[in-house]
Write a structure and sequence with these properties.
Strand content: under 5%
Largest sheet: none
Number of helices: 3
Helix content: over 70%
């Protein structure tokens, strides 16, 4: 086995392990907000899998696309999680700011 093959295997196993841990965390948590923390972990698993593809394929069309996808998932994942948490808070409380309560039905005030 070559060094490239070993590095690809290690990166792939690490990435898949992070993905499995993220799924276990999603299943184990009861609250939606707690589950959102584990969604962010999946982006780093995808980045490790993309790195494994890059090591195997080198800088080619496939390797570049895999790396770009992994980087985008890591960079945009927190934005997606924050937006989801904010929309859940608005749905539950009527406003995302702490201490602000919904006044009631529309047209009542």
């Amino acid at each position: 086995m070559s060094t490239r093959h070993v590095a690809t295997t290690v990166l792939l196993i690490a990435g898949c392990s992070l993905q499995v841990l993220a799924v276990i965390g999603l299943l184990a948590m009861r609250d939606t907000y707690d589950r959102l923390h584990y969604v962010g972990l999946a982006g780093y698993g995808a980045l490790l899998i993309a790195a494994a593809i890059l090591v195997r394929e080198s800088f080619s069309l496939i390797g570049d696309k895999a790396l770009l996808t992994g980087v985008l998932l890591v960079l945009l994942g927190p934005v997606l999680i924050h937006t989801t948490a904010r929309s859940l808070r608005i749905r539950e409380h009527g406003d995302w700011r702490p201490g602000i309560r919904r006044r009631g039905k529309r047209g009542a005030g």
